[in-house]
Amino acid sequence: MNDLNININTNKNKNKSIEEIIDILSLEFQQKPLESDFLLSLFYTTIFHRKSYILCNPFPPSFIDVPPQITTTTQNKNSSTITQPQKNFESLRSAFSQLPNVHSLSNKETLSKLSHQTIQALYFILKPSDGISVKFLDYKKFERKHGFLKDSPDHLKISHKPSFVFKIKYNVNNNNNNNDNNNNNNNNNNNNNNNNNNNNNNNNNNNNNNSNDNDNDNNDNNYNNNYNNNNNNNNNSFCINSSNNINYNNYNNNNVLVSSYHEKRHRKFKELEKEKGSMLGYHGSANENWFNIIKGRGFSHQFVSEECLFGKGFYFSSDSKVSTTFIKWGGNGGSSSKNNNNNSNNNTSELWWPNSMWSKKKIGFLSACTLINTLETARGIDVIATNHHQSAHIYTEKDRSLPPCYILADNPEDIRVKYMLLFSEDINSSNHQNNLIKSKNNNGNNLKQQNIKSNSIVHQEQNQLLQQQPTIEINRNSDGSSNDTFIQRTNNSSDSIIVKLRPLFRFLMVVFVVFVAHFLLNTFKTASKKSSISHKGVFY
C-alpha cells in the first residue's frame, strides 16, 4: 500500500463526540473482547519496536503533533510556512503502557478516565473506516473448510493446532458503489466493464477537481494527485504516507480515513479473485509485522531480501506445516518500562501488551492468505487454484523449480491476509523445557568436568606412585663396598614367598611317599599269596 490520502469530508465518524465514541468502544470491548485484544496487542508490538517508525503504519492521527504555522514578512508581503507534523511516539507509548485490560475497558467509567487522545486512538484502531475488521472464528469451521492438517499424523494435529483463529474481513460499502454508478450515469460515461467503470469514476472526480487521473492500477498515485490538486480548495484534508511525511491543513483529531479508497481496492481484489481464481497460502512472520501487513502497507518489497533461494518475492506454502517452521515466537510478557529505558534492546521485538489475555504466554502467528491466480505468481506442482473458470494452469520452468507446495508471489496487490492463526504456549512449560535442556547440558558439562577431574586425579596418583616407587640406593660400607638395596628387597620378597610355600611342598611330599609305600605293600602281598597256592599244589 502506498500513500494514504485522508479526507475528513468523506469520513462518516468525523462529527462523533467523545461521549459517542466511548459508548461505541465500550460496546466493542463487551461484544468482541478477543478481537479487541488481538488488534491492540498487534498495535502495541509496533510502537515499542526499535523500528516503530516503519512498522506503526497507519499511525493514530490523535498523536500527531502539529506545529504552529509560521508567518514571515518579506518586502511588505506576508508568506506562511507550514512545517511538517511529527508523530509523537513518546506520548503514544506512555498512553498505551497505562491501558488496562479489555475487561476493564468495557466499562464506560474506565474509558472516560482516559485522555481524549487515547480514546480517539483506540477508536482509530478498533473502528476505522478502512473496511477492515476482525472476527473470531471457531477452529472446527476453519479446519473443515480448508482441510487444515487433514493429512497430518495425530501428534502433529495436536502440536500444530492453533489456539485461536481470526478471520480478516474486507467490507465494501454498497451505497458508495451505487453513488459511483449514478455519477457515471449522470455524466454519460456508462460502461459494462467493471474496470472501465472504475476508470470513469476516477475521470469524473478528476474533472470536478480539475486534475488528471489514471487507471485503477495506479490508484495510489491517483489519490496523491487528487489530494495535491484539491488541497488549495479543501481546508479539511491531510495526507499520511508510508515514508512518514505528513501534509496537513486544518487538522482534526478525529479518526479519519477515506473509505472510498479502500473500498475500491477491496472491490478490485474481489473482481480479480472472481475472474482469475485464487490460492490459499500460509506465511509466517514476526509478531510486530502483522499490524502493518493487515491494516497498513501490506506485504512490501521493502522488507524482501535480494538473496532469496528461488528469487525475489513473497514466499507462501499450501502446506501449513512448512510455513509453521517460519513462525517467530514472541510475547514473553515483558514490561514497557524496560523498553523505554533500553529501546535498542533486541528483546523489544518480543514485547507483548502486558495487560493482554496472552501476556503470560509465548505467542506466534501464522497467516493464511488469499493470492490471486495470476501468471506472475509462481507455484509448485501441488498447488491448485480454485474459484475460477479459466483453463488449467500450465506449469512453467519457474513453477517446476519450486518445491511442490511453494507459492512465490511478486505483486503485493495480489495478496491479502484472510486468516490469522494464533499459537500460544505457556511460559512455564517452555521454561521447563528450557530448564530440561539446560540441565542436560549442565549434566553433560558436569560429566566432562568430572572426567577431567578424574583424569587429573589419576595423573596425580600416578605421579605419587612414581614418586613412591623404590629407587636404587647405594649404601657405602666401611670397607668401600656397596649393597644394592633394590636387589636385596626383591630377593627378600621372593624368599618370603618360598618360605610360605615350603609347608605345602612338605605335605605333598609326605602324601606322595605314603601313596608309593601303600602301592608297594599291596603289590608284595599279592605276590606272596600266589606263591603259597602254587606250593600247596605241589606237595599234596
Automatic annotation (TrEMBL):
Keyword Transcription part of the UniProt annotation: no
Region (Disordered): 171-236
Membrane-spanning intervals of the chain: 504-524
Name of the protein in its database record: PARP catalytic domain-containing protein
InterPro entries linked to this entry: ARTD_PARP, PARP16_N, Poly(ADP-ribose)pol_cat_dom
This protein's UniProt keywords: Glycosyltransferase, Membrane, NAD, Nucleotidyltransferase, Transferase, Transmembrane, Transmembrane helix
PARP16 N-terminal domain boundaries: 30-126
Superkingdom to which the source organism belongs: Eukaryota
Pfam families: ARTD15_N, PARP
MF-aspect GO terms: NAD+ poly-ADP-ribosyltransferase activity; nucleotidyltransferase activity
Domain PARP catalytic, residue spans: 263-326
